[in-house]
Amino acid sequence: MSTPGPRSLAEALRLRDDASLAALLRARPDLITPVPSDLTQLATRAGTRASVVRALERLDRFALQTAEALAVASDPASYDELLGLMTGDEGDPKVTAALPRAVATLREQALVWGGEDRLRLVRTARELLAPSPQHPSPTGLGPTVQEATAGMSPGRIQEIVVTAGLASTHDSVSAVAALTGLFNDRGRMAALLAEAPAQSREVLERLVWGPPYGQVTAEPAAHLRHLLDRGLLLPTAPGTVVLPREVALHLRGGRAHRTTEPLPPAPEPTAVHRPQVVDATAAGQAYTALATVEELLKDWDEGGPAVLRAGGLSVRDLKRTAVALDVSEPVAAFWVELAYAAGLLASDGEADERYAATPAYDEWLEQPAAQRWARLAQTWLTATRTPGLVGGRDAKDRALSALGPGLDRSAAPEVRHRVLTLLAGLPEGAAPSPDSVLDRLRWERPLRGPQQDDDLRARLARWTLTEAELLGVTGRGALSGHGRALLGAPAPTGAAKKGGGREAAESGTATAGPSRPRVDDNGPGDKLPVHHTPVVVEPLSPPEQAVASAAAARLLAPLLPEPLDHVLLQADLTAVAPGPLQRPLADMLDVLADVESKGGATVYRFTPGSVRRALDAGRTASDLHAFLAAHSRTPVPQPLAYLIDDVARKHGHLRVGAASAYVRCDDDALLNEIMADKRAASLRLRRLAPTVLATQADPATLLDGLRAMGFAPAAESADGDVVITRPDAHRTPPRAAPEPVPDGPPTPDATLLTAAIRAIRAGDLASTTPRKQPPSATAPTGALPRTSSAETLATMQAAVLTGEALWIGYVNAEGAASQRVIAPIRVEGGFVTAYDHTADEVRTYPLHRVTGVAELADET
Known about the structure:
WYL_dom
């Protein structure tokens, strides 16, 4: 005898083991937020519209096509019927092989339940996917004959049946059944269509793949009348007709979809490079990324651009930042957003609010270069801030600015992770085409409905490929070794090995030709791997991310250039740094000289203004001579030594203080020279004494004006001391990095899943265990048991002696009523201490809050 299947989704869930329930809750974490009280509540929540929509959006294309086929199949449907809708009359071995996996996915996510002969799509999913004039089916199929004729008069139905060549019946139900049987019979249906005029068949061909609805006039043409008289087109509203589902399926050869995609498209490599070339290219870009972030924050050391009233960076300031970094504005927005997401940049929160580096930036600078890169890369991988949106408009048509609100997209981390995972699945050194990556992502998450932002995931994927190259996660479009470690992906095995193509040639590969992706840097005779093993990489937990970042830093460190402790001084007042400089040397050169050009080597130029800047920072001429002599591989040129001595001789000879501002100098001839200079007219100086000039301008304006005239004044404090200015004086208060915006409830870990399943099982036991009602009980089914205080006390005491479990009704201090299954241990002092099967722990209950008690029915 066959065992009857479950009668509801709740019963189907009760038949699952803990591992299957855990897989469901892991795939749909919204179902345990909060934890359901029992399996009935879990089934109800799994059928809500919001939860089903979220589950459907996370299906791959073939699983979604399977659900769409079930939505237009009979309810319930057999597996063979579903297979016929997916493969059609001709069959498809690939679909046949992949269909069990798709059905298993739908079962696991509680979208389908029932046995193989009674597959049921949950009602909400059927409503979302079923066809209607307002919401056409994704399959392009219309309603069934029974649904389309629901409002038709019995006389009209009998006319259609007779015209179609069937015998007249006594009722509409049998007439509709006869017409449905005709349309489902391939032989009779072929004969009926063969009688139709060519124009009629052309109309059916236009409607067969959808949309199935069309418009007709009050007096349709003869070829349309032929179809209407035989039920091949059925009216649904005045002037509107529909192609019945059974007719469309016959014309389609039994298929629900024009094309089915059982297998995901594989990303196609367009070029294959040596792994060493990829790693070296990525490492060079990683070093450039670090230098760019340092340059950005160094430029904002004394306080960066002002914060807009609505938050964010103005368009003008973004342009200035792009010019300073010598990059385009979108790239500048990426670096600004990355520094902000890493917690290196924030607003200072002062009255005149500006952006500046945070104290975390100073700590970051002290770390080794590889660790600094790993922090930036891990931040980028998990951040929901999306720099690519900068310059666009939000839903309210407001401009989106860098560092401003509205840039968070919860899907960004998932898309970045998935794109890099696809790269990790390719042979080592293989660079895919962006379009093939997008095709794979669209298969994994097909778009549903015009209401969805059908372009966001594609844009996120393209931005990911660009940003990964900028950051040095990829090199020449291929995933680097340290990028693979950052992702937590296993090291590649098989044909693609580091060191060239000999191993590939020995492992059964095809020679690269015109129809193959080109092979770069491998040399003649190297082979291109054709087959590779897909890599599945799950997102990492925070502890795993720390381990992956450390591994990526270890792999990157040997590839980064070693910092140098010297420069090459030139006679033309320049210094050449042939590589990256050690931090103390680089910091001092940034003060003493101006950067003239960048690249493989950095060229610094010494000017009177740059030397004066070093003197303003508290250095003396002897300090500068000693510094240059200690860090130059060439002798200090005489012009540079003269420049330093000449600026130092003039530096501080003039003193500027606050009057609003004043100038004092022991050399009255120098003050006479200033007063006689026409360029000083805008400063409106006046002599207070032979050695003192005063002005209404502020000290900073006076300093800039005198320096523009070629003098080297020094700022003076109220005590008469020289004020030493330092470029790194401004920092924001400690700021936390912005938290990513989660994409729905987080995936539960093993501990939470175990606790949730135990609570659901216990609650289900309490709600479904058969109960024995006292003979006098008249309460309706499902109500709390009601017994007198004496009966309650007596039953509790008896259960203590026998060890039996009881069903009780309980009202807590807040007035919330619940049902519980308990095993009393002790009854005394107006309290009962018992093991609560619902909560799976020992608890104490006041007897006056127990509404009643009943024995559990005997198990049979």
